[in-house]
Structure formats: structure tokens, C-alpha cells
Amino acid sequence: MPQYPITARNRVRRLPKRGHYDRKTVHAIIDEALVCHVAFAPGGVPTVIPTLHARVGDSLLLHGSKASRLMKHLADGHPVSVAITLVDGIVLARSVFHSSMNYRSVVIHGSGTPVEDEAGKLAALEAFSEQIARGRWADARKPSRKELKATTVISIPIELAAAKVRSGPPLDDEADYDLPIWAGVLPLGLRADTAIPDPRLGRGLTTPAYARRYQRTPAGRSNAS
Amino acid sequence: MPQYPITARNRVRRLPKRGHYDRKTVHAIIDEALVCHVAFAPGGVPTVIPTLHARVGDSLLLHGSKASRLMKHLADGHPVSVAITLVDGIVLARSVFHSSMNYRSVVIHGSGTPVEDEAGKLAALEAFSEQIARGRWADARKPSRKELKATTVISIPIELAAAKVRSGPPLDDEADYDLPIWAGVLPLGLRADTAIPDPRLGRGLTTPAYARRYQRTPAGRSNAS
Fold this sequence. Notes:
The structure is a homodimer. Chain A is of the alpha+beta class. Chain A contains six helices and twelve strands. Chain A has helices at about 25-30, 70-75, 120-130, 135-140, 145-150, 210; strands at about 20, 35-40, 45-50, 55, 60-65, 80-90, 100-110, 115, 150-155, 160-165, 185-190, 195.
């Protein structure tokens, strides 16, 4: 299935031309992003929390402490909505009204199920580690059985999902193009500075390649597609 | 009031040491961020949407098309939660379990009221414009009466608010410090590349200073504090 079904729940309503429902676009945005925002509504009252995510195939994974309110709520199967947003630039139109952002975002609706088995949990934690820094899992001290037990992993099917994308130059009202006002795009992106070694770093340990040349681009990291 | 009241609604539950309730910390995070994530729950079902925001004093402002489902929902006074997140770095601990992010986030709970009067709306749109690029309002073509009418502005009191901040090096289990594993922080930030002039840019128009030296730091821009 190259395309997600378009339903009342995931259809892009505002500016529908910006909507994309193909797996490739949706997955690429999820994979490039470092954080997501999870909305849940205990007692019908909405709350939103930033957290890390990972993707394995058509599942979005979230994790947290077993004691976390969010994790307990999601493990109980309550509805959830997750937004993942990449900011690509500021669009300065001649008019304030048409000024905008270039962005790529995904919103997923659904509900989660806890990953209960130890092997599944371990695979999920590997996916989180690789989502953050590809190559890190091989180097780091793996989770102990106790640490695994203290962690809840939630899997949400990526199905009621839609991407929304704006790119390119400003689009002004035709009459405004004659105004003597500069217009254009300021490209933006999440960039890494030089890695800062831990003050307690052991002697002779050099910065690994994934920390030296870190970038959040689809080419710079990867997950199972 | 230098500090927001701590209640059951805004208290940081997970890792309470990372919680901050002082106005200065909360405002600085809101002002530096370019996007927020708004959670609402029509019929009790949570939805989350990324959008721009601005701050004027102790009010968080959102805006959108008069036709937007979110704007109508918020104008009706339904509860809302807004998260604003700045990603500052990746924390690579020796163990996967203690690996983390450096971040500054704010979550606000409350409900909004529409800004109805024309002067208030215009001031809000100025705040949005300045939030995106300080100095732009003076240059751009201001909103017409018709454009103002097509725009809904929602004001949410910043009151049930909390910031959550992690900074600094990894914190590993004491026993793990002896492992021959590199650890440290990869600093991250939203950075601007060279501005791209509109292909239809009028002759003789040069890139303004705010687009040439653009940065998302508190010093790089400002709002009424």
C-alpha cells in the first residue's frame, strides 16, 4: 500500500493542496524529525507533551517511564494524536497576510498498544537509539533487564496519517508584486555544532564518526523502511 | 508576579527537578520558538496541530483562517493545551537508558478568547510578524481590513504554565563511567542559511538586515516583555 487511506479523521482540511498521503513522504518526515508532540485527553481535557519517537515499518513508537501518566494512558488504549514537524524556512511575502513558513509535518491519529515482550522492547529501544544517532546502539551499553522493565514502549499504527508540506517562494497577491518590498525565503534547519565530550570522559576515547558529522537529514541517518 | 502558581494542572510530574515556573524562563522559551503545537479535543478526541504563535505580555496568541476548525473550536472557549519545544542537543550517555535530549519546553493549559476589535487584531498580527522576523512589520504591506476580517486571533492566558529544561552532560550510572564508551553532548539549534530572494523580486531591492543575519536567539529578536 503506497498510500494511506484518506478519511474524515486524517484528511487535511485547511489548504488541502498541501496534503500528502503517500507512505514515502510520511515516513521521510517521521524519520528526519527528532521530537514529536503527543496529544492525549484524559477526561476529555487535551494535554500535549514533547517526546522522542521512532518508526519501525508502519508503527510509530513512543517510550517512557513505566510510572509516566502518558504511558499509562496510552497503554490503556485511549485515543492519541501525534504531530511531527520540520521547520524548513520563513517565507517573507510582501504582505504580512501571505507571509508563512516552509515546513513538512505529519499528524497521526489512532491509539496505541504496549509492546510487552522483551525482544520487542529491546528492538524498540534500538530503534529509538538509532533514531537519535545512527550507529550509537553498537557502541552504547545496552539496556539491562531491569531497565527494560522500567520502560514502557507504545506502538501506534501509522494509518490515519497525513503529511502537510509547504515549500518554495512566497505567493503574493498579484498587485503586491509591484511594491518596493524585499521578499524571499530564509531557509532554516536543525544543525549540529561540534560535539562536547563528557567532562568525565575516559582517556583515549575519541569522538565517534556519528557524533563528529551529525546531521538530521534523511541521508544522515536511517531506519528500516 | 515573578512565578506562575503551581497547581495539579501545570505541575511537572515526570522529573520534577526539571520543572520551572518563573515567568522569565517561560517567556524566554516562548519568545525564542518559531512554532508551537496546539492540542484540542473536539468530542473528547485529542488532535494536535503545529502553528505559529506570538506572546504579548502574559498572553499567548494564535491565529488562523476564520474558516479553520481549530480557530472556531478555540473561539468557543474549549480547553486547549499548547507545547513549545526548543531542541538544544542530544545527550549520548554511556548507557542507552540514560541517553537523553537537552531541551527547553513550555506547556500551557487553559482556554482562549477571540480578539474581536480591529486594533487588538492588528497589534496581534504585528506580534506574529515580529515573532517570525523582528523588523519585518515596518517593511511589509500591512493587513487590509478584509484580511483582518478573514483572520481569527485567539488569546490564551499564560498562567497554568510550566517550563521543563534539561541541560548539561550525560548522567550515567556510577559503574558505567569506567566503560570504554565515548559520551557527550551534540549541541543542536535551528540555524538559518543564506536568504533566497523571491524569483520575482523587484530590481534594486536588497536583502534587509533581519533576513541577512537571521537567528533564533532571544538576542536576535524580541517582543514586549
